[in-house]
Amino acid sequence: MEIKIKELRKSFPNKGLAPLVVLRNINLAVPAGNFVSIIGPSGCGKTTLLKIIAGLEKADAGDIEISPESVSPSIPIIWQEHRLFPWRTVLKNLAFPLELRKVGREQAEVAARQLLQKLNLEEFANYYPWQLSGGMAHLASIGRALTINSQCLLMDEPFASVDYQAKHALFRRVKEIQSEKGSTIIYVTHDVRDAIQYSDRIAVLSARPSSVLEFIKPTPNDLSHSALEEHIWELLIESREVAQNNLS
Amino acid sequence: MTLRRIRIQQWLVPLSGILFCLFIWEVLIRFGFIRSLFLPPPTAILFALTKNFGYLISSAAVTVRDIAVGYVAGCAVGIAFGILIGYYRLLNLAISPLLLIISPIPIVTFMPLFIIWFGLNILPVIACAFIAAFFPCLLNTISGVRNVDYRWIEVAKNLGATNYQILQKIIIPAALPHIADGLRLSIQICFLITPVAEMIMGQVGLGGFIWRSADLFKTDLVILGQLTLGVMGLFLYRVFGWVESHILLPWRPVKA
């Protein structure tokens, strides 16, 4: 699934003051089957951008073209927190998107169980979310997003709160799923190293009001990775300084 | 300490506390510190129980029926209205001031009105139990529905839920802890109000049993009626606790 974002603009009301412009002019073309990281300083509108792509927020102006048009009406987001419903077991959390699509409860649970098996979470099917470790809960939330069978996944820094090992394992699972299904993944993060390590492309956003500073393609070379990391940091620091100067 | 010893201790210590208090109570009366007309000794109450068991049970059955009918109806209507008022913002805005005025009115003060409306029968008592259950359920349900974590609604919307599905599959289950609080509070208030309403009506239920016994200066029966209410209350709270943790909210983390 290819996603083209053109001249996207979004602002929020600001208690009697001028509207707070978060996204000023976003232009981005995410090629089908790519893992694209969006990196930018806090408050630059990364999550807002994901919500607009998912259809949860409306942009003030601009366009998002998704091709081919998805069979499923929604593009699932994997959130920063796992956001599993605490009153549902892991199995029923995974069956939830299918229940919404009027799939019978039994059929939905069979499909959810198959997915749990794939994710090695089958033995936790009847656990409630509070009984899972952070990593397992995030894996289950990825499973819930996958039941929609969308060709695209949006990830809002979902592994920020899990330890390094769990994060690495979760990334491996996501990459496996991506290559299995040819999914397009848009991954929002603060972590420059993660972005370089896992992405096919990296979009660097400026500080608010944000626009895309660079759309970088990392190469699989360790030496250039550190240079790239430095370059991205320079871009971020520079954009923050510009934003602060504009404010003062 | 082994688990078995802890369990024995959990039963034994409270039981010995109760037995000790009963013993002191008995001694105070037997040695003439308190007149038995004002406070009969535990043995006299036990004797009154054996003599009036049938009468006590039939009175208790009436109270249980009054509470059950009023509670179930009050909770059902309270929860249903609570969901509607909590979900529809305008309805909430329109009705909230009225609720703020009506809900603090002491429930027993409705009794004269109910007697005028329904006559001298069991209905005024049930109506009081209804009101006692209705308001806590209504207010807690409204608060539960209005305070559902927006992030869950966002997840459901993102996964393709319609507004009705969000209400049915997210808002109502997420509001359940508040609704359960309302149900528990309702049962407590029902239990406080119904015997009082029965006393006002004079001749029915355990309230009537206590009132008539007091009229005849049978303090042993008055205390017997009170203790029966205490035991019934304890039983009901225990049953409710089980229903809450096994049926309503089995997903809540187990308290250590």
Protein model, in words:
The complex is a heterodimer of chains A (248) and B (256). Chain A contains seven helices and nine strands, in the order βββαββαααβαβαββα. Chain A is globular and about 60 Å long. Chain A has a nine-stranded mixed beta sheet, with helices on both faces. In chain A, strand 6, helix 5 and strand 7 form a beta-alpha-beta unit. In chain A, helix 2 packs parallel to helix 4 (134-146). Chain A has 248 residues and is an alpha/beta fold. Chain B is mostly helical and 256 residues long. Chain B has one domain (58-248): MetI-like (MetI-like fold), CATH 1.10.3720.10. Helices cover 81% and strands 0% of the residues of chain B. Chain B has helices spanning 3-30, 42-51, 53-87, 89-102, 111-118, 123-146, 150-158, 163-201, 205-215, 219-248. In chain B, helix 3 (53-87) runs antiparallel to helix 4 (89-102) and helix 8 (163-201) runs antiparallel to helix 10. The A-B interface holds A 54, 56, 72-74, 76-77, 79, 81, 83, 85-89, 96-97, 99-101, 128, 130, 144-145, 148 and B 151-152, 154-162, 165, 169-170, 173-174, 176, 249, 251-253.
